[in-house]
Design brief:
Strand content: 15-25%
Strand order of the largest sheet: 1-2-3-4-6-7-12
Shape: globular
Number of strands: 12
Low-confidence stretches: none
Radius of gyration: 23 Å
Length: 337
């Protein structure tokens, strides 16, 4: 089931689209236009009774009402039906990030205080460039791009913990071994481990950052590949869709262009990929884009955190892609009127 905040923001956005004057009125009405079961309606009502969700509910409801009123959105026409994805992954190869399907036509993604664009296996980003490829790889990315540094950190960590019964090699870790490591590390902060362990981690950070950036960059040799990479990073897909949400300071309401639309107005000048400088492995990316209509050049910035999932050694690393540029400044994210 979706998290509490997700339920509040996404469903209150939907209620705003249905033309109610207040969010509470919509929740009490339980309109069949919003396809929810009784248990979900009950949970939404209980969450709205909690004052801690008031700000999120009000902002989401206002966004839905804005989408209803916008000429670029619903143009004042109350939808006949809204289907909520409830965080489920769609079947097949569909990649459009729709949280709400309005009248089986409008695909709406809700983004509230989140700048995460993708959460993928590192190989899918750095090697496959976020393409939909039917192959399953769950390798340990740290071991793949920084084998010596990974082994050194692992050996020093096992030694610092005085841990026995685990493999000598980091590439031999099983899920059960990772669980043992996670539980053993839980009581310890990084500062409690040896200087050698901290030095080994710093070396791993440098090598993973540099190795990931180099591997990603070398796979994007042609201008066409770089352009398509930018589209995938920014979630610009073959079907148009909408983003509604809040970036922490301002409402976000935009129509996302298709690649065809994007090329009519914009052209990619450069995509720079460099190792990040952070306390964990990171790769920074910068897309320089020419806006021909405005006779201007803009830079879209983002970064990728390459990190263990659920703690050090707990699971193989993941690549979390962040957008650092404000949504309204991203080429192809056209603000609704």
């Amino acid at each position: 089931m979706a998290a509490d905040r997700t339920i509040v923001t996404e469903l209150c956005t939907a209620l705003g689209m249905l033309g109610y004057e207040r969010v509470r009125a919509g929740a009490l009405d339980r309109s069949r236009r919003l396809a929810l079961d009784d248990a979900t309606w009950d949970r939404l009502g209980a969450l709205l009774d909690d004052p801690g969700h008031d700000a999120a509910a009000i902002a989401a409801f206002a966004n839905g009402a804005g989408f209803l009123a916008s000429n670029g959105g619903l143009g004042g026409r109350v939808p006949r039906t809204i289907v909520w994805s409830a965080g489920r992954r769609p079947p097949g190869d569909e990649v459009v990030p729709a949280d709400l399907l309005v009248d089986h036509v409008y695909l709406v993604s809700c983004k509230y205080r989140s700048k995460v664009l993708h959460n993928a296996a590192p190989s899918r980003l750095f090697d496959d460039h976020l393409m939909t490829i039917d192959r399953r790889r769950r390798s340990d990315w740290y071991v793949e791009v920084a084998p010596l540094e990974s082994q050194e950190l692992y050996a020093r960590t096992v030694d610092a913990l005085g841990l026995g019964g685990v493999p000598e090699r980091v590439d031999a870790l099983t899920p059960a071994d990772r669980k043992v490591l996670k539980e053993s590390l839980r009581p310890h902060s990084r500062s409690e481990l040896s200087d050698g362990t901290r030095d080994a981690y710093a070396a791993l950070v440098r090598q993973v950052s540099e190795g990931s950036a180099d591997r990603w960059r070398r796979g994007l040799g042609s201008a066409e590949r770089r352009e398509r990479m930018v589209w995938r990073l920014l979630r610009i897909y073959g079907a148009p869709y909408f983003i509604v949400g809040h970036d922490g300071a301002n409402p976000v309401r935009a129509r996302i262009a298709t690649p065809w639309d994007w090329r009519q107005r914009y052209s990619l000048r450069a995509l720079d990929i460099v190792p990040g400088n952070a306390g964990q492995p990171q790769v920074d990316w910068f897309a320089e884009v020419e806006d021909r209509d405005a006779d201007d050049v803009m830079v879209v910035e983002g970064h990728v955190e390459v990190r263990w999932s659920h703690g050090r050694f707990a699971q193989p690393p993941e690549a979390k892609v962040y957008l650092d540029t404000a949504h309204h400044l991203v080429p192809g994210y056209e603000p609704l009127d």
